[in-house]
Automatic annotation (TrEMBL):
Protein's name according to its UniProt entry: 3110_t:CDS:1
Amino acid sequence: VAGLYDYGPPGCALQSNILDLWRKHFVLEEEMLEMDGAIITLADVLKTSGHVDKFSDWMVKDKKTGDIFRADHLVEAVLEARLDGDKQANLELTGNDAKSQKDKKKKKGTIQPIDNYTGTELGEIICKHNIKSPETGNDLTEPVEFNLMFESSIGPTGHLKGYLRPETAQGQFLNFKKFLEFNNDKMPFASASIGRSFRNEISPRSGLLRVREFTMAEIEHYVDPNNKKHDRFDEVKDVKLSLLPRYIQSEGKTVPIELPIGEAVEKKIVDNETLGYFLARTHLFLTMLGIKCDRLRFRQHMPNEMAHYACDCWDAEIQSSYGWIECVGCAD
């Protein structure tokens, strides 16, 4: 039952205030179409969206105690710790010894995110770098795939399969036609939803950061894929953001660049106005909440860690006592 928390009076008040500010900043100010969707989702829906096949992580077990760990997080934590101990360490993740010396230099001093590595690749890394169970030092099993959705059955027969939703997006997509009619068939527009989502995390940890049940506030902005301009982009073009694009990360660096979002879009660091607009609006929201600018950055996903539905993605990351933690994801 790790990763299940109850909120008392202070927690309820804090959460309520944050959601109230979010609703005013996004839903009301931008006239978004808000909905409240069902938590239980038909299996057919999540099969079609790719979540049944692809919404999973790789886990490993301590061979003696049976303790379970999420493989990619364990690998990253162990290798980062070793790098901290030896700044000159050169740890390759892929096990591909044919990589050029230039590529090797790029990886010095940093570990590239490995969220989307296969089980075989993770197993090779664990073997190559002799990674053991962090709590006992025992050997680990080969990585096994684990779907993160809570499975359920609908109705008395139990034949109709469902899942507790892993995100609030699917309900918005299902109701797209109704939204469009409500909006008098005009595009572009945005929908929004606030509600509980559920993920059967392999190893919940870090307090409230990685839990099995959490409140999610989500927006879907529907746009012409051939014209991703935004009518209100001029209002935010001068907002300065701390950006950590792919090309900086691939050089093994972690120092972001500071740019007005208008310049970032013009230089194609951020692909288009709509994506840039929401990065800027997210920055304004988080700083309004009290997040300090020097502890806030937007990191672009590397190709190997992108969600199965994304062609580009930027995370708003906040520096906390647990390091840099994703707080918001902006995916195109």
